[in-house]
Amino acid sequence: MLRIEGLNVAYGGLRALADVSLAVEAGQFVAIVGPNGAGKTTLFKTVSGIVQPGSGRITFEGRDLLAVPPAQRAHLGIAHVPEGRQVFRTLSVFENLEMGALPARGRAEWSRNLEQIYALFPVLKERRDQPAGTLSGGEQQMLAIGRGLASSPRLLLLDEPSMGLAPLLADLIFSRIEEIHRQGGLTVLLVEQRVAEALGSCNYGYVLESGRLVLEGTNDTLLGDERVQRAYLGM
């Protein structure tokens, strides 16, 4: 579904991504883990079109994604739930969800998607008329994920969904992400610093360090790797 080949991205002469190649197949749950500053968010921004690469290739369902204007990529079925949630604070919960449904597929399947979002996150239904900026951090993260689902995506990009959340709330968010993947077979690409939880949830994972992919494999392979255990799991 998504293929990235030889991707290089630099900011002000500093290389953020160096020759990164990875693949996400339809229906997979793939995690990219690594320390802060490894280039994980830059990778997502490049897929979404916020950042332009110096070289490399990105294809989505066989189409050259770099030739598609950033504003049109959501209409192809890519939903990016950004780091830090970035909800529309002055709009209501319901209006935020409506904003996510702007692509044609989202509009056509709006009623079904809204029902699914409210089933996953009942608090959003309870607070549908409340300004998004008044929600707690965990509730805003639920809203950001719901807004992504409202577009009826084929690929859901989740950037650090546990950031700034208490452990119990982070666990709840991970369980809902697993449920989204399990129930609908939605393809999920997750970027996360909580390595144990991310690798425990995914089918396949990549480890990104200093802009380079250093390891890849199934979740069992990576969780059993001594380097991962020492560097990220405290073992």
Q: Could you write a compact summary of the structure shown?
A:
This protein has 235 residues and is of the alpha/beta class.
Task: Give the overall average pLDDT.
Answer: 93
List the secondary-structure elements in sequence, H or E. EEEHEEHEHHHHHEHEHEEHH
Helix content: 25-40%
Low-confidence stretches: none
Oligomer designation: single chain
Separate helix tally:
11
* Structural class category: alpha/beta
Rg over CA atoms, rounded to whole Å, is: 17 Å
Q: How many DSSP-defined strands?
A: 10
Strand arrangement within the widest β-sheet reads 6-7-8-3-9-10
Quote the distance from N terminus to C terminus: 35 Å
- Beta content: 25-35%
Care to describe what's here?
The chain has 235 residues and is an alpha/beta fold. The chain is 39% helix and 26% strand. The protein contains eleven helices and ten strands. It has helices at residues 40-48, 70-73, 93-100, 104-108, 110-120, 122-126, 137-149, 167-184, 195-201, 219-223, 226-232, and strands at 2-11, 14-24, 29-33, 55-60, 63-64, 78-81, 155-159, 187-192, 204-209, 212-218. The strands form two sheets. A six-stranded mixed β-sheet has the order 6-7-8-3-9-10, with helices on both faces. Strands 2-1-4-5 form a four-stranded antiparallel β-sheet, covered by helices on one side. Strand 1 (2-11) and strand 2 (14-24) form a beta hairpin. Helix 3 (93-100) packs parallel to helix 7. The protein is globular and about 45 Å long. It starts with a strand and ends with a helix. The model has no long low-confidence stretch (mean pLDDT 93).
